[in-house]
Amino acid sequence: MNVDKLNLMPSPALQQMGKRPMGQRIKEWVTDFRRQWEIQSMVIPGIIFMIVFCYIPIYGLTIAFKNYTVIDTLSSAPWVGLDNFRIILSDKYFWDSVINTLGISFLKLAIGFVIPIILGIMIYELNRGRFKKIVQTISYLPHFLSWIVLGGMLITWFSTSGLFNQLLLELGLISKPSNILLDAGKYWWIATLSDIWKEAGWGTILYLAVMSKIDPTYYEAARIDGASRIRQIWNITLPNMKMIISLNLILTVSGLLGSNLDQTLVLMNSQNREKAEVINSYVYRMGMTQGDFSYATAVGLGVSIVSVILLVAANKITSKLNDNQSVL
């Protein structure tokens, strides 16, 4: 008999398991649950939470295919099929929000994805323990401040008499102060850099955790061979961080269409709206402000579908780069 066929055949234990009647398997499951009921019961609240807040609301996606108003129920609203999606394709303001979302997201991907890696390596390379902790604390701190607080700080700093205008005047870079947040052309950079300022330090946590697990004998051997600090980082640190970098890249790419709503609502104003309006704020405005729930749900559903496609594509690409090893 062919060896390959033998390898594909299930074991006798598995064959016997498959032959057992359903009632016996359920009885064994109940017995196992009773034996471990303390541990098993800890999972029940999480399961209930997911059912109530994650699975039951999926039925609400039918609103995207209906003409729903506040006086309707999900079942009584008239069915309109794909009409809401056809409106989306011809909506100029929606496509403007898509362009803004992609522009800001690609800037955050190009700059904000690399900076936590560099910052994490720099913190890891610090030798003095107390100074290292101080740097980590300072870099983490903005993450714990809400966008309401940070947005208020930025609005004050970017005002005509704010810190940035005074600094630029002292350096002779401008001759007349102006409110920077009212300049729509600068908003993409403001959104990108302020998001990096808030999240870069927090983004180093996973990288520092991975680097702490690297065998120090690798660095000792490299130093004996005369490798410089840069060469050690390039040949030892970065290769050992490959999987976590790939995972963060996949998650970042899948979220390209999900710009920060809190940041946008705080920093957006009537003067910079044409460059500040992103998909999330557009959905919020159409649904909560204008009451067009069906249209807003259709936009959200379309964005979710595209995000799943981006997630799968990014996973496929990174697995090819990692010798067909998927991180998901």
Automatic annotation (TrEMBL):
Transmembrane segments annotated in the record for this chain: 43-65, 102-124, 144-167, 187-210, 243-261, 293-314
Residues making up the signal peptide according to the UniProt record: none
Keywords: Cell membrane, Membrane, Transmembrane, Transmembrane helix, Transport
Membrane topology designation: Multi-pass membrane protein
Pfam families on file: BPD_transp_1
Residue ranges occupied by any ABC transmembrane type-1 domain in the UniProt entry: 98-314
InterPro entries registered for this protein in UniProt: MetI-like (IPR000515), MetI-like_sf (IPR035906), UgpAE/MalFG_permease (IPR050809)
Family statement: Belongs to the binding-protein-dependent transport system permease family.
UniProt name for this protein: Sugar ABC transporter permease
Natural source organism: Paenibacillus sonchi
